Amino acid sequence: MAVYTDVSDEALRAFLSQYDLGAPLSFKGIAEGVENSNFLLRTDTGNYILTLYEKRVNEAELPFFINLMGHLARAGLACPQPVRNRAGTALGRLCGRPAAIVTFLDGVSLSRPNAGHCRALGAALAGLHAAGRDFPMRRDNNLSVGAWRPLFVQAEAQADTVAPGLAERTRADLDVLEASWPVGLPSGVIHADLFTDNVFFIGDTLSGLIDFYFACTDAFAYDLAISLNAWCFDPDGTFHRDKAGAMIAGYDAVRRLEPAEVAALPILARGAAMRFMLTRLVDWLNVPAGALVQPKNPLEYDRRLAFHRAAKDARDYGWVG
Ligand SMILES: Nc1ncnc2c1ncn2[C@@H]1O[C@H](COP(=O)(O)OP(=O)(O)OP(=O)(O)O)[C@@H](O)[C@H]1O
Ligand SMILES: N[C@@H](CCO)C(=O)O
């Protein structure tokens, strides 16, 4: 459970007194997520999510995320709406942390999405890219290829305690990725963390996208590569080509992929797997004392990297266009 910071009743009451949300009826830590402290807040005006921003979130970047959610919601995307306090601001401080309240979205995330869900995700991702086109703010991706070697260095000495040979193969992959990372692909606002736990469905209909705290300006096809990794493999590394093909086709039906993006898919997918393997590895080796959090297994992404190393072109990912 990701609750790094405890919020006392008094602190919550003082914080809520700045808003017109009515009286709190219940307030509970949420048993998912690894990044921030999240609480479900019910008041007599509705349900909300209260987030205290923790470790990886840079406070100076919070206006990007908050304004982006507002922009996307206004453009018709089903995503959380930041709630403003009486002073007109959506960002405050609670227990020494930056904090915000956003609207609650109905729906459930799927642990085992099928190809139909993957197609819907692809279409929604392309919709997000289109909705973000006229967003005026920019945020560089601070977890792109230039950040991977420094992350690895933090974990290198202990990597082989997690899996034999992990340090060696990661070094070799980093050499390849740094030498061949694509530049100049169509870019704009990307979500950059669109895993199954950040997408809600009601029945088989995609009902909402959450967790925009890694959103940044980067290649659209890299976002697709992140979701291919997250949605189309089993934890043991088994790849589901039908799901990947459906996701790519769902995306392409809404925003036509350019030939350069199709050609870059294998290296983008390999880089995406590296990004999540590395952040997971660093977290795995550095769980904060006393935090209620279950770190995610880096080896799930080490196994995906084995698939990407062997992939020849986008057809290996189910692309048939
Ligand atoms: N707007 C929302 N509406 C409904 N539920 C939400 C909303 N925002 C967050 N949640 C719930 O809180 C959980 C954690 O939220 P979130 O994914 O933003 O946390 P995180 O710590 O950033 O996690 P992650 O590990 O995915 O980065 C979600 O899985 C979901 O159950
Ligand atoms: N979605 C990420 C956690 C948040 O960055 C992972 O599964 O590693």
TrEMBL record:
Annotated EC: 2.7.1.39
Alphabetized UniProt keyword annotations: Amino-acid biosynthesis, ATP-binding, Kinase, Nucleotide-binding, Threonine biosynthesis, Transferase
UniProt xrefs under Pfam families: APH (PF01636)
Recorded GO MF terms: ATP binding; homoserine kinase activity
Family annotation (InterPro entries): Aminoglycoside_PTrfase, Homoserine_kinase_II, Kinase-like_dom_sf, Pseudomonas-type_ThrB
Domain (Aminoglycoside phosphotransferase): residue spans on this chain: 27-255
Catalytic activity: L-homoserine + ATP = O-phospho-L-homoserine + ADP + H(+)
Top class in the EC scheme: transferase
A biological process term (GO) from this entry: threonine biosynthetic process
Record-linked CDD domains: HomoserineK_II
Pathway where it operates: Amino-acid biosynthesis; L-threonine biosynthesis; L-threonine from L-aspartate: step 4/5
Alphabetized NCBIfam families for the sequence: PRK05231.1 (NF003558), thrB_alt (TIGR00938)
Family: Belongs to the pseudomonas-type ThrB family.
Name of the protein: Homoserine kinase
Lineage: Bacteria, Pseudomonadati, Pseudomonadota, Alphaproteobacteria, Hyphomicrobiales
